[in-house]
Amino acid sequence: MLASSFFLARSEFSHTCCLPPRPARLTPLFKIPVVLADQSAELVAGARARIDATYKRSSAFKAKTAKDPAAAEADVAATLSLLTTVAAGTEQPGSLGAAFGEVDVVIEAVMENMAVKKAVFKALAAEANPSAVLCTNTSTLSIDEIADGAGPANAGRVVGTHFFSPAHIMRLLENVQGSRSSPEAVATAMEIGKVLGKVPVLSGNCFGFIGNRMLEGYGQEAAFCVEEGATPAEVDRALNGFGMAMGLFAMSDLAGTDIGLLVRSQFGCTDSASPFGNGRRYPALLDVIPNAGLHGQKTGSGWCVKPSLAEPRGPPSFPSF
Ligand SMILES: NC(=O)c1ccc[n+]([C@@H]2O[C@H](COP(=O)([O-])OP(=O)(O)OC[C@H]3O[C@@H](n4cnc5c(N)ncnc54)[C@H](O)[C@@H]3O)[C@@H](O)[C@H]2O)c1
User: Fold this and answer.
1) How high is the mean pLDDT of the chain?
2) 16-203: which CATH number, 3.40.190.170, 3.10.290.10, 3.40.50.2300, 3.40.50.720?
3) Given 15, 162, 168, 295, which residue is catalytic?
4) Residue of 111, 116, 137 with the most ligand 1 atoms within 8 Å of its CB, for mutation
5) How far is the CA of 144 from the centre of ligand 1 (A)?
């Protein structure tokens, strides 16, 4: 059934997005009309500027080497014109905006917080096109609980579409089937992956799905190494040497160190009274950097093991831990 799709995941793309109906024939990335929504005109303008810059940067080489550079540039402009924006709640307080009534697919990417996600899905159930598939980009949260936000009549339309950062580069798309996700919603999510030239895989609904479930264990061990005296750069070098394309700490800077903290607090890990840890050691170091407001690429400071990615403004503060 899918007609259109879109991708997102990192902060520059991570906003609630909805896709207008159309196109008869789909062409790759960004040849699809997309509406991007965030909470205020200022946030929307910032996101729009980052998307434009990213897309122009990635198209610059193609334009330079094209036989007809003017036509290539016009193509970039035409592609970017397919992206429109809306500041949710500005038309009517508490409302998502009229654009949501006309889309085929919504991809929600608000912060990793169950209460916020459920509120957004409640609004989507009320305001989005009744036939739209409602996708969530959550990294770890339960699709079933998010679907509860949409209510029993709409839970079948809810499915996970977990993109990986940076979403315009990473090919894996981890789709997540909730217990009430309809076959149409799951098929749509899989088709989204194909249309975007990604590799869609289907996961069951569990903590961290596939990728982040694997990451959890080795992420904790990486943090323990630093707690015991290694530097984040040393740990990342070891991981690179082992064959990982990117170390754990560079990845945390790229994705945003705050996401892990949000996940750990959602699951009660940061609460010392919580039984979640089951008596196991907790890597408290991982909370120090985000709690200090160092959110990696989002704030320009973090673990800073790969300065070109993190563009650090100051020295990392982990040695004081
Ligand atoms: N950052 C990554 O690398 C990455 C990768 C995969 C998945 N994710 C997932 O994507 C989601 C977003 O993560 P992030 O790091 O981009 O978070 P973020 O905090 O950087 O961005 C969240 C955005 O959602 C907006 N928002 C919040 N409430 C809203 C509402 N009611 N309506 C519209 N917009 C609203 C915020 O203004 C903000 O722009 C999370 O679920 C996260 O787990 C992130």
Assistant:
1) 82
2) 3.40.50.720
3) 162
4) 111
5) 19
